[in-house]
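Troubleshooting log. The previous structure file for this entry was overwritten by mistake, so regenerating from the original sequence record. Sequence copied from the archived sheet and checked twice against the printout by T.R.
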Amino acid sequence: MLRVGVIGATGYTGEEIIKILARHKDVKITVLQAVVESEAPISKIFPQLAGKIDLVCKKPDVKKAKDSADLFFLALPHTVSMSVAPEFLKEGKKVIDLSADYRLDVNEYEKWYGVKHKDALNIKKAVYGLPELFRDKIKKAKLVANPGCYPTGASLGALPLVKAGLIDLSTIIVDAKSGATGAGRKAHISLSFSEVNENVKAYKINEHQHKPEIAMVIGGVAKEAVNIVFVPHLIPVNRGILSTVYMDLDRDVGALKINQIYEDFYRKEPFVRVMEEGELPALRDVQHTNFCNIGIKVTGKKVIAVSCIDNLLKGAAGQAVQNMNIMCGFTEGEGL
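Regenerated output below.
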């Protein structure tokens, strides 16, 4: 049994990781840590875990944690993980980081997150954890940078046509709508019930910190720099992201051919489902699952790809466990 620790166990993502790992046949949770007022069994913090796992969630202490697990999930805020991950890595532990601290190069990270990076050496060693692109590298990784939720949905919607070389890369627009859990479990007036309920709003238009991450993934496949337009929205649901990706074809290609390109690209991917030509996905199709559903509409030279994921699962915890399964040689869908 692989001994696993979750650091940041009481956030939305940490909670989901624990739920998945509690039913995973190949692992045992041996460490739970978080910033808590008082240490208590995790089943007291999350009563739905009663009878499944009663391990005490302790206050953060890397020295005590590192000898008790072989692999650590860091479900920590951005700018925090880079102080924690090196401590585990130097002890030979595997790390899956769910923050943005290892997703971008140092210059891009410091530009978009506004702080100096403390662990530039490990950025170079980190593998970006999008299995549909980097499965072979993930198998050998010691440090996986788990992708952001918006980049996961947007990238999966665009990649098949980018890989096929059929897109005018200057035309990519991503319009994405996320549930309120995407902001994390924190107290802020903008996330209060009365602010979110019966309301939809755009925010951080074309300046969201996930924009360079989406551009990095798409540009890596295109083998050239791309500059996308990214408009995120907050919608009054708990969980899920619906991303509408607009792209112009650089030649005439029929709808059936486009759909076939998507089906071929994702044929062997266990967690991506391409819908039949003319069908489009909805959030309820993927909530509480690790799936990404994709539907495509072609109008002349305009392609509109719609992807749906659960932001807490395929956009975070589920994808992190998927990456652990790949890293450790487990069945990729185990626990998911």
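The first strand starts at residue 2 and ends at 7. Archived copy saved in two places this time.
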